[in-house]
Amino acid sequence: MHNIYLPKIAVIKEITKESADTKLFKLVLKNKQKEFTYNNGQFLIVGLPGAGEAAFNLCSNPLVSKRYLEISVRKVGRLTNLIHQLKVGDHLFIRGPYGRGWPKFTNLPTNNLLLVGGGCGFIPLRSVVLEIFIKTLRKKLANFNIQIFYGCATFDNLLFKKELRQWQQKLNLKIIFDKEKVVKKFDSLQCDVGLITKLFDLYPIDNTTTAFLCGPPLMYKFVIEKLKKINVPDQNIYLSLERRMECGDGICQHCASGDLYVCKDGPVFRYDEIKDTELI
């Protein structure tokens, strides 16, 4: 009998410090990695014995899922503090993948795609960008217009700096800081200063755009206002509500609103599915 609560053992293969409080962990499942598959936007439940579990978004490229997986961990509590103390070769215990992720590129209603990530909300979008960056897929997406908006507090808080430099050379990636004071190049990255909504004024968006949003709830309110102002349809706006999850399987009811569960029906939802619910 399959036990959905039985975790798999994941071995830490690599740790990268992304900021003062965030690390990227590359993991390989013990004896199970070649069987592991997932979609962009899905999540794992990750735990340590005696310290509990928490939900973490998969942020690696799903096209290489049979080789390894990656999660980004921000140090904010007991469990994440303990994870930050782990070293290469140590173990984590994971369940999943869970949930409904971002729609496939082939299922998008238009060829204009906008990714909007605020703070650590950029983490679930990293896997989308990595997939876009795969050479074979980029040929298939040659007729796509892809824009990426990444809003962060300061340069020091910015995640995936090394990758961002590569992406900004090849992709239409715009970065903005709301707590820096001057517009300048930050370590070879071209950045703006202000709230993330300012990017909509600086770099126009087509009204046939499909938008993937992930960030704090307040960001959703103002970004959706910008999208609605240019008449982007509700069904073309997708939001990740990954911050509301706990058990991963709908048992704890923590993420429920009416008959919707973030962990089972999401974490990615179309805006028209949830705009009249307590989820947003």
Number of H/I helices = 8
Percent helix:
10-25%
Q: What fraction strand?
A: 25-35%
| CATH homologous superfamily placement of the largest domain | Nucleotide-binding domain of ferredoxin-NADP reductase (FNR) module
Would you identify the regions where 5 or more consecutive residues have pLDDT less than 50? Answer: none
Query: What is the C-alpha radius of gyration, as a whole number of Å?
Result: 18 Å
Question: Short description, anyone?
Answer:
With 280 residues, the chain is of the alpha/beta class. 22% of the residues lie in helices and 32% in strands.
Describe the structure using short key phrases.
Rossmann fold; alpha/beta; 16 strands; single chain; eight-stranded mixed sheet; 280 residues; six-stranded antiparallel sheet; Elongation Factor Tu (Ef-tu), domain 3
Could you explain the architecture of this structure?
It is a single chain. By secondary structure, the protein is an alpha/beta fold. The chain is 22% helix and 32% strand. It has 2 domains: 8-98, Elongation Factor Tu (Ef-tu), domain 3 (Beta Barrel); 105-274, Rossmann fold, CATH 3.40.50. The chain has an 8-stranded mixed sheet with strand order 10-11-9-8-7-12-13-16, sandwiched between helices. A 6-stranded antiparallel sheet has the order 4-3-6-1-2-5, with helices on one face. The longest helix is centred in the last third of the chain and has 13 residues, at 217-229. It is globular and about 50 Å long. The mean pLDDT is 90.
